[in-house]
Amino acid sequence: MKILVTGATGFLGTTLCAKLEEQEHELTRLNSKNCDLTQQDALLQFKQPAYDRIYHLAAWTQAGDFCLYHPGEQWIINQQINTNVLTWWQQHQPQAKLICMGTSCAYAPDMELVEENYLNGLPIESLFTYAMTKRMLYAGLLALHKQFGLKYLCLVPSTLYGPGYHTDGRQMHFIFDLIRKIIRGKLYGEPVILWGDGYQSRELVFVEDFAQIATQLADSVDNELINIGAGEEFPIRHFAKLICDRVNYDFNAIQFDTSRYVGAKSKCLAVGKLQHCLPDLQLTPLEVGLSKTIDWFWQEQEKLLPAN
């Protein structure tokens, strides 16, 4: 197949492209350096060839408290990106199936995180703007399918983790930040201070599992929104304890700063639809995925864990 991927050099994009190449597809990789998706005519150079699939991964956001300080920019930039991609899809690549990323923060925190609730209620205030741009992206898919018959698939991931996370100075998702802090505590004796009381819970999906799931669902499911999660969540303290055991650091030395931003207290996606679509799905066990991620940190020690 001929496949175009936006956000191709990001954390997920790199892994997904490797999976698609393994399957011998012909790829066109877009990133912010070779195609500025905020510009209305940026995609016109890609009117040919006719693509079979488009994976739209590009988004303007970061982890941590980034969304608190950039709500206006997030709205404008992500709306530009998504509108330009959808417009190009409808006008120049209507034969292609578009697979895009939703976000778990689009769900209202007081409702079950099941697909039927994706557009219901209000997202958490601190992530409201980014969440609403992802809801608008999904609304665009629904509208273009209804009027023009375009095929889509919207995947809503839990937090992804694994080797190869971007190292360009951006804020890290919690699991990478945990690993970094604990290893630095081990190497340099730095205090390990985690945000919150450690009892907020999170769910993780190994990035290679997600890439495999995305390609499988793209082959078999049309015009659906599907949660991609592990089906279980654990407190931050549990993740920290596993990491401490792996790197031989004293868990009891960790400090918890309850004054810092922690986002939602719980976030575990309902995965009944995923299990129905892929009944034989086997995910990488948490301990195995964490070990591979920690090993990658050690391999990239000079970049990720430089001495001060």
**Rg, alpha carbons:** 19 Å
- The CATH architecture of the largest domain is 3-Layer(aba) Sandwich
Physical arrangement of strands within the biggest beta sheet = 2-1-3-4-5-10
Tell me the β content.
5-15%
* Strand elements, count: 12
Helical content band: 40-55%
CATH class of the largest domain: Alpha Beta
- For the terminal residues, how far apart are their CA atoms? 47 Å
Question: Regions with pLDDT < 50 over 5+ consecutive residues?
Answer: none
How would you sum up the major sheet?
6 strands, parallel
The run of helices and strands is EHEEHHEHEEHEEEHEEHEHHH
Structural domains: how many: 2
* CATH fold node name of the largest domain: Rossmann fold
Instruction: Name the CATH superfamily assignment of the largest domain.
Output: NAD(P)-binding Rossmann-like Domain
Structure annotation, total helices: 10
Structural class: alpha/beta
